[in-house]
Amino acid sequence: MTDKQTNFDCIVLGAGPGGCVAATILADAGHSVALIEKQTFPRYQIGESMIPYNYFPLERVGMIDKMKASDFPKKHSVQFVGRTGRQSQPFYFSEHLDHECAQTWQVTRDVYDAMMLDNAREHGVTVFENMTARSLIEDGDKTIGAVCVDQDGQTREFKAKVTLDATGGKGVAMKHHKWRIEDPNLVKRAIWTYYRGAKRDPGIDEGATTITYLEDKNWFWYIPLRDNIVSVGLVGDKEYLFDETNDLHTIFKREVNKNVWIKKHLAQGERDSDYHVCIHRSYRSKYCAKDGLVLVGDALSFLDPVFSTGMYLTLVSGELAADAVVAALKKGDVSGKQFQAYGETMCERIEILRRLVYAFYAKDFSFKQIVMKYPHLKGKVTDCLIGNLDQDFTDLNEALAEFLDLPDPIKHGRAKTN
Ligand SMILES: Cc1cc2nc3c(=O)[nH]c(=O)nc-3n(C[C@H](O)[C@H](O)[C@H](O)COP(=O)(O)OP(=O)(O)OC[C@H]3O[C@@H](n4cnc5c(N)ncnc54)[C@H](O)[C@@H]3O)c2cc1C
Fold first, then answer.
1. In angstroms, what is the span from residue 383 Cα to ligand 1's centroid?
2. pLDDT for the residue numbered 173
3. Are residue 82 and residue 68 in the same domain, yes or no?
């Protein structure tokens, strides 16, 4: 196979975790796969905290031993800290899970994403870095590839039986087809940075994710990473964060001073990076697939990151999309119909988590209320937070509906079948 080859069974656009999982599974199934990435790895990315059920797609692509051999901090728990700095009992995954996935990881994404990409190469995927997908190639209603541009500005047309779009939030397919539909109630700002030498809790809590509350359901994340670095992020409404100033340092410091736990933990460290800022809008593509095309990860949907579920949804969608593509290629039919089950499963899972995100932000609501009134539902709440979503959550939904207005399920995001 030469670098000039541009005809493949499958092309995967974007080499984040979603693209890498999908490409690796497709190559394992014996297909020729091109993975097309606009940047050169390692490259920076946010999204560092994993949840236990990330384990299974990672296991599928042979990444678990590599994760175990890495120096990523081990995450055994998550804890929530109140506005006054009062710490709740950490929630240890092992109390709920009798499986080694109860210990997960906090990953530095440039390192982790490069590991995933190397792993894809080892499984036979042909990787093109510095290659930007500009548009999809359509033959009538069917996608048959992508027009790409390399680092020298040369245009290359890649043709494939199936194209998988895993290009993240600025997804090529969503843009090409104008499919991006935002959730108007979940628009937040995030300001984050990195501290060196900030406090780590002792023992098994060393790698815990901590979520600390500010007023009005604004919050901080605190994620210990490798090399004595901690990722600290502030998430909130525009009005809350930017009412007095747009200066990121001033806003960050102001909010740090409002939460005793964060203030104390950062006090012994030093800021080691500039501030990053983004508006994160939750969205879902109008369609998850059509003839010859399947969307994966953030290229399909993004949900507020409060429960660290982004990479879980991305990895799962990479796995399910690849399985659907393998089955479609076997049948010799890559029409949108072949991806209906994929769309249904992804929409169901996103919806379960979306309801929980709405609950998190609901005024005057706390999950403690549910657990106090319905102690038997504690396990269901936990299942959502660890990613064990393949079950019926009707009882939890009915209980939540007693306390808050739950959003109607989003109807779009399924496969386009005509
Ligand atoms: C503030 C914030 C905090 C978050 N925190 C967490 C967290 O703690 N835990 C968690 O699990 N998730 C978190 N997330 C979500 C997480 O970052 C994403 O869900 C995850 O990175 C999605 O992976 P992906 O593979 O779909 O896309 P990406 O990781 O975005 O990868 C897409 C790849 O496609 C490439 N690409 C883009 N355009 C093109 C193109 N035209 N041609 C070729 N290549 C292209 C990009 O260079 C990139 O490498 C967070 C998100 C935000 C915004």
1. 24
2. 97
3. no
Q: Which atom of ligand 1 is nearest to the CA of 280?
A: 53
310 in a structural domain: yes
pLDDT value of position 4:
62
CATH number at residue 142: 3.50.50.60
Cα 9 from chain centroid (whole Å): 26
Q: Which of 280, 308, 329 is at the close of a domain?
A: 280
CA 73 to centroid of ligand 1, rounded, Å? 20
Q: What is the pLDDT of residue 53?
A: 98
CA distance 374 to 398: 11
Please state whether the predicted TM-score (pTM) of the whole model is above 0.90. Answer: yes
Of 216, 207, 285, residue with least CA distance to 255: 216
Residue type, 271: R
Distance in angstroms (rounded) separating the CA atoms of residues 228 and 58 = 25
Of the pLDDT bands very low, low, confident and very high (cuts 50, 70, 90), residue 83 is confident
Q: What are phi and psi of 280, to 5 degrees?
A: -105, 120
Q: Which amino acid is at 252?
A: F
Residue 172 in contact with ligand 1 by CB distance below 6 A: yes
Secondary structure tally for the chain: helices H, strands E: 13, 20
- β-sheet bridge partners, residue 287: 414
Q: Is 19 inside a domain boundary? A: yes
| Ligand 1 lined by 305 (C-beta under 6 Å) | yes
* Domains in the chain, number: 2
Question: Domain check: are 210 and 249 in the same one?
Answer: yes
DSSP 44-67: -----B--GGGHHHHHHTT-HHHH
Give pLDDT tens digits for 142-188. Answer: 999 999 999 999 999 999 999 999 999 999 999 999 999 999 999 99
- The amino acid occupying position 15 is A
- Domain annotation covers residue 368: no
Look at strands 293-295 and 33-36 and give their pairing: unpaired
d(CA 335, CA 331): 11
Range of the domain at 222: 75-105+184-280
Residues 187 and 194 sit within 8 Å (Cβ to Cβ): no
Ligand 1 proximity of 289 Cβ (cutoff 6 Å): no
Residue 2 binned pLDDT confidence (cut-offs 50, 70, 90)? very low
Residue 418, amino acid? N
Asked whether residue 416 is assigned to any structural domain, the reply reads: no
Ligand 1 centroid distance, CA of 311 (Å): 8
Among 21, 27, 82, which residue's Cα sits nearest to residue 54? 21
Given a cut of 70, is residue 34 above it in pLDDT? yes
